[in-house]
Amino acid sequence: MALTQSQLAQAVASSKLGKYELVKLALEWIAANKYNEEYRKLTQTDIITKALNDIMEGIATPEKISELNKKISAREKSDKENCAPEEAQAAPKAE
To answer: Domain map of the chain by residue range?
Structure first.
């Protein structure tokens, strides 16, 4: 259940984490979800609101962010290993 704007503002104001820790956590959650199709379709404002809602509802936690970051790192490492090096793709230089 998503919080309304006023509920979200009240929850952020009364959070035990503090507003700066919430912002940090929201940015980390957004970065961890950059490949999530649900986030890709949202406006920037909606992404921030969704991230804050996820944090306040306990969906986004430091542990879950860490888990997602590990999956992203593994995916990016796999993608790099499957791609040809840039040097091999570059056109030969004319002398």
So the answer is: 16-78
